[in-house]
Design a protein that fits this description.
It is an enzyme of class 1 (oxidoreductase). The protein is built from 12 helices and 10 strands. It is of the alpha/beta class. The protein has a 5-stranded parallel β-sheet, sandwiched between helices.
Length: 306
């Protein structure tokens, strides 16, 4: 099996780097600037699970020569349209596209461009960032990739993909209901992102503030209500895990959106908060905390755009 990793940033670079180091057939699709960095310095991972440095196979959009068996799409949501255009020559009639973007808006966009059959479901759980040297720094030990058919069926291509991803230095799992897990991840991201960005603090700092714990519960309940109304019913165990994580005393955890905000970088506000708010309004739901987070992030985006 041959896999194309679209993006060699903190997420794609991490999973693709682990796969390549394990001897899998991996090619990265990158922009010219990232290609120059990889050519000069290789791909480097700094991790509590073990550091590595490799010389990866990579191409730019004009160098793709034909379809791949699988495409792992790891770009930020605001770069999706350009990424789909760049990777189009790599998508053939039997290619499965595995997006690990945040939210669910990209699902409709990919289906419209490549058709239902091309889309697979995928969820990644990893905390990574790029440092000023272009190295991928893993911030914790969590490193899981789950995948499956969107309709929950067991297919030959997913069995092949599962075999390809096993034993590559991270947790790989063929999921029975990947669509539900995608909605559960959105629930977690919208809650964590909305809380940390709106309150401008870590989970532990928000929890310790007067009224902080009650605010977290209200925000999570609001997001959960939207997901139940417009998406899939979350698993009670998964919901309990998110609630515990968001109220953990002293936790240094933040969202990647909050970390990007602190660096004055573009954020995925529309995909993580804005689209969920739009779906809530379409369903006639009153979500004042989501609306407050959306307005807060819109002010930030207006500042960096100016």
């Amino acid at each position: 099996m041959r896999i194309l990793i679209v993006g060699a940033g903190s997420t794609g670079g991490y999973f693709g780097g682990r796969l390549a180091a394990a001897g899998r057939d991996v090619t990265f699709l990158v922009r010219p600037a990232r290609a120059e960095r990889l050519r000069a310095d290789g791909l480097q991972i700094v991790s509590p699970m073990g550091d590595l440095k490799i010389r990866p196979n990579f191409v730019t959009a004009d160098q793709i020569e034909g379809p791949f068996d699988a495409v792992l799409l790891t770009v930020k949501a605001y770069a999706l349209d350009a990424a789909l255009e760049d990777m189009a020559p790599a998508v053939g009639p039997d290619t499965v596209i595995l997006p690990v973007l945040n939210g669910m808006k990209h699902v409709d966009i990919i289906r419209a461009r490549f058709g239902d059959a091309a889309l697979g479901g995928c969820v990644c759980k990893v905390a990574t960032t790029l440092d000023d040297r272009g190295r991928i720094v893993q911030l914790g030990k969590m490193q899981e990739l789950a995948y499956g058919e969107m309709d929950g069926s067991r297919s030959e291509r997913m069995e092949r993909l599962d075999a390809f991803l096993q034993g590559a230095g991270f947790d790989a799992r063929l999921a029975a209901d990947i669509e539900r897990e995608m909605w559960e991840k959105w629930l977690m991201l919208a809650s964590l992102g909305g809380i940390t960005c709106l309150m401008r603090g870590t989970v532990g700092e928000v929890e310790a503030a007067p009224g902080g714990r009650a605010f977290v519960h209200r925000f999570l309940d609001e997001v959960t209500g939207v997901v139940r109304a417009v998406g899939r019913e979350p698993d009670e165990g998964a919901l309990a895990t998110v609630r515990s994580m968001l109220t953990q005393k002293g936790s240094p955890q933040t969202s990647s959106m909050y970390r990007d905000l602190l660096k004055d970088q573009p954020i995925e506000a529309e995909q993580i908060i804005g689209d969920l708010l739009a779906r809530a309004r379409q369903a006639g739901l009153d979500t004042p905390l989501l609306a407050a987070a959306d307005t807060h992030l819109a002010v930030y985006q207006g500042k960096i755009a100016g």
